[in-house]
Design brief:
- The complex is a heterodimer of chains A (about 140) and B (about 120).
- Chain A is mainly alpha-helical and about 140 residues long.
- With about 120 residues, chain B is mainly alpha-helical.
- Chain B has two domains: about 70 residues, no CATH class; about 45 residues, no CATH class.
- The chains are: A mainly alpha (about 140), B mainly alpha (about 120).
- At the A-B interface, helix 1, helix 2, helix 3, helix 4 and helix 5 of A face helix 1, helix 2, helix 3, helix 4 and helix 5 of B.
Chain lengths: ~140, ~120
């Protein structure tokens, strides 16, 4: 039963990405903590592995719509190394409770972004999976 | 590519990587707005380009965390495989349900998650 619930939250995470352009990780982590009894740091780490494939599918689809600037994306990713190393080191050195509270703050921040987008007059159409307007 | 542009990409990549490594998320939450504000990206291009960067950033993070023995591939499959279906389903239903409603529902889900973690 717990696996079904975790899978359902994973599905919603992917859907959130497909619909409103926010990554699924923010739902993968709670799915792993709440339903599969992982510690916060292990859930975050495992979420990263799942994200690679979900982002790859999303990037592939977006590439088809002409929404990917290949060179910038590759440069950005390559430049991410130092930040990732720092974030991973911090996540392994603070307590699980601290990490949980930081994650809760991130979830609230993303919720606020979603609400702001929903309330914005003339809200733009979702960024993913639609044909681009520009050539 | 100019030095100014490279520097901005370096800062955005570093900030996104830090978010990703610390929170176990993709980092798009920070990469997308920075691409829009600093490099004049449109929203769709920012999201698409961010996804490509996240493939690389997520791989760095998963490799680094696996050195700490923190990655469980079986559990990653439990959430990740349904998520792949979710990406496709999200795009399919996108035309039929109002985006605002979806955004509010997901915001409520995230608030519930945050409350669960806090208490």
């Amino acid at each position: 039963m717990e696996y079904v619930a975790a899978a359902a939250l994973g599905f919603l995470g992917g859907m959130l990405g497909g619909l409103v352009g926010v990554g699924g990780g923010v739902l993968f982590v709670p799915a792993l903590v709440i339903f599969l009894d992982m510690t916060q740091v292990k859930a975050e780490s495992t979420s990263l592995l799942a994200i690679i494939f979900v982002a790859a599918l999303g990037a592939y689809r977006q590439y088809g719509y002409g929404n990917v600037r290949m060179r910038d994306g590759l440069v950005l990713g390559a430049f991410g190394l130092v930040g990732v190393a720092g974030g991973v080191a911090i996540s392994n050195s603070v307590s699980g409770r601290t990490l949980e509270l930081l994650f809760a703050a991130l979830a609230l921040l993303i919720a606020a972004q979603l609400v702001r987008r929903a309330l914005k007059p003339g809200s733009p159409s979702p960024p993913r999976a639609r044909a681009p307007e520009r050539p | 590519m100019t030095r100014d542009r490279l520097l901005k990409l370096l800062l955005i990549g570093t900030a996104g990587g830090l978010f990703s490594g610390l929170f176990g998320v993709g980092g798009g939450t920070i990469i997308v707005p920075l691409l829009i504000f600093w490099l004049a990206y449109g929203e769709r291009e920012a999201t698409g380009t961010s996804l490509l960067a996240i493939v690389i950033i997520g791989a760095y993070g998963a490799i680094a965390q696996s050195l700490y023995g923190n990655v469980n591939p079986g559990n990653a499959a439990v959430v990740g495989i349904p998520a792949l279906a979710g990406v496709v389903a999200g795009a399919a239903v996108q035309q039929r349900i109002p985006e605002r409603l979806v955004a509010i529902l997901f915001a409520a889900l995230l608030v519930a998650t945050a409350v669960q973690f806090i208490f």
